[in-house]
Fold each of these.
Amino acid sequence: MAEIYLNLLILICFCLFAWGLIRVERVYQYPFFMGIIFISFLVPQAFALTQNPGQVSQVALERVLLVSCTCAAACLIGYKLKPNKKWLVKLDIPIDERKLFKAGIALMVIGFIFIFLINNTPVEKGANGNWSGLNTIYLFFAQVIYIAFGIFLLQTLQRPSVSNLIFTAITSVPLIQTVILYGRRQPTMTLLVIIGVSFFLIRRYTPPRWIFITVIVLMALLIPAIGLLRGNFWTLLFSGNWQEVLSVSQKTFNYLIDGDLLELRNAALLMDAAEHTNRYGYGTGYWDGMVFQYVPGQIVGYDLKRLLQFNNFETYDLASMYGYSIPGGSTITGIGDSFIEFSYFGFLSFAFIAYIFKNLWISSVYHASTFSRLLYMGLISPAMVGLTHGTGRFFQEALFQLIFVGLVTYYSRIKYKEYMQYMEDR
């Protein structure tokens, strides 16, 4: 059955990809870009896990492949549901563009202040190698620079002017530095997504189909290499040392296919542990992620922060059950975390995210809602990370976007009297 499920997964993923290529305007919609991530990230891992299951039993292997199929299919099924008319009305918020410009400047200043603090504060790391201490708080607020960049880019494409161009260039600097100097994958994807979606929403520009076919191949080959080389990847690329780039890409891809270290193996074993112990989170894992992201232990105390969490994840003793420990720096994927929350109904997390994107897309494209456009651009990267790292990551970052884009929109909205005039002129 494992081979059947693997073939079914490949078929579903390529159906998502084909769905986007049939009509080019779909390339910025949820099913298509999730199809790209499934093909470039999950399918190679599924193939490698099938060839080298390690501690994963045949039953656990079949389970993780079956659930992967349902999650991939849910990306399209959830998107096919009719949009919610009440949501669309609430999303259609008239905006004063002058106030929006001021809000963008405020976010830009906040972003640069916290970037400065990050650069001048010694980095503290926890036992897992992740950042800890004040830098985690600074990093949280520094991310508003992405929203500022989106605001200025949209305004530049709508009404090109010297001031719009200058502020777009200024806000792009830290993003480009993060991509070039540090080789971070998520900021790279975020920057490309913001630019691509902005050009489509304002100018209706879509790249040729062959570009996306090329992207699939490059992502499968280069993503592991970028993760390994970080900033050195771009150094090699810009120096014209293609041979070294190709060599490292080939080595990392071969290492992935060998299956010695696979995120999908982490997912398979966690899912098996949840099934055998009958311990599921039922959404508490998502809550724990919110607490981890938004409750600063440096301020309220780590004991209180831990008290606010359920920590059901710690009940899965993989070492004693399978003689396995999740390698540092690896993830459990969205397949794994959605299953340990809702068992075989975990695919509904992907369907729900798809439904959110459907409403935002309709509101952005057909109602020209600035609020929806900014949210849409800000949520594409978290949605893709939702597969590679966990669906909980999507909801954490979605709340961040909702808070700050919501504040910007609240400040920039047109008041009632202005709104009546706006409707008459519309």
Note: The CA atoms of residues 261 and 397 lie 27 Å apart.
Amino acid sequence: DEVELTFVHRAVGGITENDISLAATTNATILGFNVRPDRKARTLAESENVEIRTYEVIYKLLEDIEQAMLGMLAPEFEEVVTGEAEVREIFRVPRIGAIAGCYVRSGVITRGSKVRFLRDGTIIWKGAINSLRRFKEDAREVREGFECGVGLSDFQDLKPGDLIETYDEQEIARS
């Protein structure tokens, strides 16, 4: 339903200059089965940037059309949770804002990763981790079982008991 295949012109016989002109005008690809373009048509196709695909096996033609249509589909993404931390305490730092003192319950919390804040099971904010610290040291990542300080770019409404979920978006193959 998302991708539509339209035939501009169907004919029997070799690929001609008229076929090339029509394909150039309609921004189409020429598909030929057991035919070849003549020399003039091939020259015109090169100058007009018209793609010509010829096949001798019908299954290859159908396979290529299917692959081309799949390539036109918009990608779908799946969110995969990479870490979860519980906010235990809030620290207010002048000129920086709120820092969430957290305990990593599972996975890995990584600086720069996508994050969502949950309060009572409801997503209250989505964004990215701006800063991540372990004690006073900057950290690239903090693993399960450790404590850390999480700074967020534009979210200050933190409360103890909130959950921080980090996640990646992975592309799903469409079919």
Note: The chain has three helices and ten strands.
Amino acid sequence: MVLEVAEETAHWTVARSSELYQVEDWGKGYFSINPLGHVCVHPYKEKDRSIDLKVLVDRLQLRGIDPPILLRFGDILKHRLSEIYAAFQRAIKEHAYQGGYHCIYPIKVNQQRQVIEEVLRFGRPYGFGLEAGSKPELLAVIALADNQTPIICNGFKDDEFIEMAVLAHKIGRRIIPVIEKYTELEMILHHAERIGVRPI
């Protein structure tokens, strides 16, 4: 048994590793295996521009930063946002769509401040917005978004959630509530009148 494993290891290749772990499939052009067998990241899907992750981690360790290490690839996020926008623009043109369009990032996907800030920064030229589905998410979105950012209020909306949304509207945030029940509309009208703003 040990001999079989040793023989298998001796004949192992980088190509077999890449095939076994299917890096080309899940990596979607952003990740690959280099000839040394190291995982590389390609922030813009350009094969000739890559970062060897093993070399990066080795250099971080030389600086006294030991694993586990969380690496964020803002350039991948930026590239993905531009690809999403471009795909929708192609579809809009192809189908002669006349309505408006805003890509919306639901912060429940990843609530880390740095990620949301990057979505806002990289998505601003494309009119990207944020979705809040709970009171804590709405508070976070109100704090991070500017007055041009569309804020979709979705999910369970109790009286406090609606009041927060109306108050955010009063300070200039661009609030778009998803109304699922007549009672939600009644709460919006009640708080808008009480606070003295036009209903959102």
Note: The longest strand covers residues 129-132.
Amino acid sequence: MAAQQLEAVGLQPGETLSSYGRTIYPIGSDPHRQLLVERRERRSFAERVTDTRRAATLPDGRAQHLVERFPPTRGSTGTGVGPLYSGEGRQDLLAMVYIVVATESPGLLPDVGDLVWVAEMGEDTALDTACAELDHEARRLLDRKPVALWSAIEKALAAAERSTDWKIRQEALRHAALLRTMMSPREGYVGELYVEGLPVTGVRQILDALLIVAEDGHAPGTRVRLLDKHHEGRTATIIGAGWGSSGPPVGYLVWLDGAKTPLSARADQLVVLAGQESLPR
């Protein structure tokens, strides 16, 4: 059945349905990001342990780790895709989302002792496994409407400010101040007021790429072509993943080349173009 399906879509050499395989670091036209990713792959064991120790520190250490692990980039020239994994305040927002998870679903938090032990292995993926439930819930929270997400963050920070642990109180106060700054009006170049807002899209994309490491799928930035009858043969860029209760993405948000708005597609409606992974394993 699978062979018949693959034959029916006319796959070219190196192509695959997006229901299969994995793309973590899509190849693109950003040499700086590629340099950062390759440099990270060449870390010594001591450097890896230092990084995983930091990543085991919730919420800020893990947030910083993930922001650095999946650096910002842009869509390829001519596609119409703008910044990816981007936005001012990504680390702060991700840390705040972890605080929301700790408040709303404390049972999803990994045991601190387990994290400390796993961190000594120096393996990102081992720590990812320990934090899997936390990271999945953080990604689900980011699908909430902006107002609902903002409200959840405010409530979680207010609760943390009442903690008996002074470190938690201090961090909550710091994040509350950052949240107010993010949501405060700013003055533009010609004097107009605007609100920068929360960098939700960039943080979603970071968590999409992270979850794909374990679950398979194709991270934002991956180039695809569509199979549905309305857009058959047109090429596009994945800019987000849609998740079910478990397993790889069930669908993707894609940006057709030259389009003005994104569209949603099921995983079996997309073909991943050849040579998309910049770090083949």
Note: The mean pLDDT is 89.
